[in-house]
Amino acid sequence: MIRNFVLAGLAASALVFGPTAAEAGRDLDAIKARGTIRCGVQGPSNPGFGVPNAQGVWGGFNVEICRAVAITIFNDPSKVEFVPVTTQSRFPALTNGEVDILSNNSTWTLTRDTGVNRFNFPAIVFFDGQSVMVPRRLNVTSAKQLNGATVCVQPGTTTELNLADYFRQNNMTFRPVVIEALDELRRAYDQGRCDVFTNDFAALAAARVLLTNPRDHVILPERISKEPLSPVVRQGDEELTNIVAWTVFGLIDAEEFGITQANVDQMATTATDPRIRRLLGTEPGMSAALGAADAGYMRAIIKAFGNYGEIFERHLGTNTPLGLERGLNRTWTNGGLLYAPPAR
User: Which residue of 16, 95, 127, 321 is 20 to 30 Å from 48, comparing CA positions?
Assistant: First the structure.
């Protein structure tokens, strides 16, 4: 009777606390067995965030996040397969196992956290907000001047819902021009089939680069929503979720601590700050707790790509075609929202 009681208790615990440790890493185990991580990126291109060059090699902000995760898992940034996905295909691709991770400007929302196909959003990599772009010739300075406008928008997105909310809240009407493919939507706007193009601010900045005459278009100052963008993985494998989260947190910490691509090797050998020593693997323990391939995984990541700020400035910053200011994407010590939990 005692034995049966204990077994019943263990079964109940399994129901309450979920998968066992062996089951919890099934996605990560599959990635390691395959030898690569499949990363879904917005295709065919998303300037600044993810674009293949003439040789088919992908580069950009979201791409380097995936390559950093590959270093954490494999100690090798090349162990990534990049899979182009659209706004509509991204979550089915993740659900069906076509990709292991999305790194394509996906917004963290309640229903994506809790829906039938549940997803984990390990760490916010970009704080954004929905905006609208208009031709300069319209002489519009505020989104509140757009009553009756035709608006290019993708269907089945939070963008479409936010747009309807904003116009309703401001007692305005609009006529949607709904096109699923982002490139086709951009071309429709460029051809004058709609007055307004709406998307996240950073996505509009990327789209503007591809317009026939980018300087003829302006992104209006309002942000009509909150869009916290995060990599996405399937729920059920907390080990993979942790690896993605703490890879991103490590990049943020590196910027906060002043660790750069140029000085990371020196910092690894001379730093006395215990936080830096733990981050760079000089003091062991953090990599083993995470399940990283090498004790110096963050040192390797920073040496390959730099810290968060360096990655941002290289692909998205003021000296790039997108010309984005850091804004909310500064570290908390510099007036932004980027903040990593303590690695200890």
Answer: 95
